[in-house]
Amino acid sequence: MSEATFNQTELAKYDGQAGQPAYVAVDGVVYDVTGIAAWAGGKHHGNLAGRELTAVIDNKSPHGRSVLKKLKVVGQYVAN
């Protein structure tokens, strides 16, 4: 895993807007969703990149955590 560490403020910078990469955090791990077509523009079914989405993926996502295996890990998420 990468040594990069993101808190809420840092993660918010990676929202997939204005040329920025799109990152999301799930269960303490930060994933890069930049090249995923479903995350174009940093948005996916009402969810926004640059956010911590553990509750969303565990409680509302039809695919659950299975899709995370396909994503590049870019760091760790540490709550403020």
TrEMBL record:
Record organism: Lactiplantibacillus garii
SMART domains: Cyt-b5
Coiled-coil positions: none
Family matches, as Gene3D superfamilies: Cytochrome b5-like heme/steroid binding domain
A Pfam family the protein falls into: Cyt-b5
Residue ranges constituting the Cytochrome b5 heme-binding domain according to the UniProt record: 6-78
Name of this chain's protein: Cytochrome B5
Superkingdom, taxonomy of origin: Bacteria
